[in-house]
Predict the 3D structure of the following.
Amino acid sequence: PPPQGYPQYRLNDKSKFSLQIGKRVLDSELNPQGQIPVFSANVKKPFGFIHKELLKDYEKDSVLWGIDGDWMVGFIPKNTPFYPTDHCGVLQVNDKDIKAKIVSFLLDETGKKAGFSRNLRASIERVGSVKIPLPPIEEQEKIINAIENIESKISLLESHLSQLDSKKSKVLQDFL
């Protein structure tokens, strides 16, 4: 069925999801030898590393979103410690029939459509009010597999492109 035919779930439904925001991290708390990556508004790349933990439970996958920067959504697999700052929202799924990875894709698309940005902050209230359509678990898994397959091909192509750029630079250096 088309997405319109799927049940809609609001992200602030506590029976299905949990939402939270991290805590402020000062530059003086960051440590290059830290074991735990710190995520801020850029949820794709750690902002630094730290020794302390904020979250105590990593038994679920986590969906991260940047609250007050350019709109972006990230995914942290379960059993992976991380520290979210006060510029990073964290969503976890409380329902075995909902895959967090699919929620991350849907939140990303829905946030783009909503216009979340530096000007329209993705506050916990705004993200909580978002509704997403969710297919049955079997379809979620098929969609995730298809997207991950495409993402791995993109990574491979990016790697090849980087190698070609290096070769091009070497050729130019040899001639100059």
